Amino acid sequence: MYDWIKAFHVIAVIAWLAGMLYLPRLFVYHCAAERGSVQSETFKTMERRLLRVIINPAMIVTWLLGLWLAWHGPDSHYGWFASGWLQAKFALVLVLSALHGWCARWVRDFAIDRNQHSPKFYRIINEVPAILMAAIVILAVVKPF
Q1: For the chain, which has fewer Cβ within 10 Å, the N-terminal or C-terminal residue?
Q2: Do residues 44 and 110 lie in contact, with contact meaning Cβ atoms separated by under 8 Å?
Q3: In whole angstroms, how large is the CA radius of gyration of the chain?
Q4: Total Cβ atoms within 10 A of residue 124
Q5: What sign for the dihedral angle of Cα 87, 90, 92, 98?
Q6: Across all residues in the chain, what is the average pLDDT?
Q7: pTM for the full model?
Q8: Under DSSP, is residue 63 helix (H, G, I), strand (E, B) or coil?
Q9: Per-residue confidence at 77, pLDDT binned at 50, 70, 90?
Q10: Predicted pLDDT of residue 73
């Protein structure tokens, strides 16, 4: 059963990160759309649906299955929890979750035409999930400590 849970965890992670990589890119383009325009309203719909239908559920599944895997890991009586690599991974996943929360806030800001950031800001933010993803995958696969 462990391998099945791990497979579904990886699928959820892929969905979560795909959304987290795409949403800030939508924000970049949304910044260029005139407030109240058809284009702006289309971006609002895309952002809201991406967050609610893909990103939020994928994050929840990722967390639930990841915690199950950590508890049932083969490392010790307490699973992987005593492992340094998991503690570092957990910290990075918390950062990714915080970014998720900020993205949800920015979706709400765009929804009421109150975006306060530039396209450059969102271009920079767009890189953060990729950097976190690389570090998390290295920790999970290599288990360096």
Answers
A1: N
A2: yes
A3: 17
A4: 12
A5: negative
A6: 95
A7: 0.93
A8: helix
A9: low
A10: 79
